[in-house]
Write the structure tokens for this entry.
Amino acid sequence: MRHWLLALLALSFPLWAADPEAGKAKTAVCAGCHGQDGIATNPAYPNLAGQNAQYLIAAMKAYKDGSRNNPIMKSMVEALSDADLENVAAYYQSLKK
């Protein structure tokens, strides 16, 4: 029984953590709307600094698959892998609001 529980716990955690520094490297294009430090200079765009990573991942995946309709955001995320999305989200989560 104990081995089953350990296996279940191991599957519930990712094998590797997201890399905020790798995410930062992917955000140059994001800065145009969301600001260099994740704080948008235009109130029409949301601030990303300090945002929950899981929310950001879900939002970016929704833009990517079209379930959240925004052609500009879709074009920004469509070339990003799932690992890239996780890294970008980790980067923005790491920033101070």
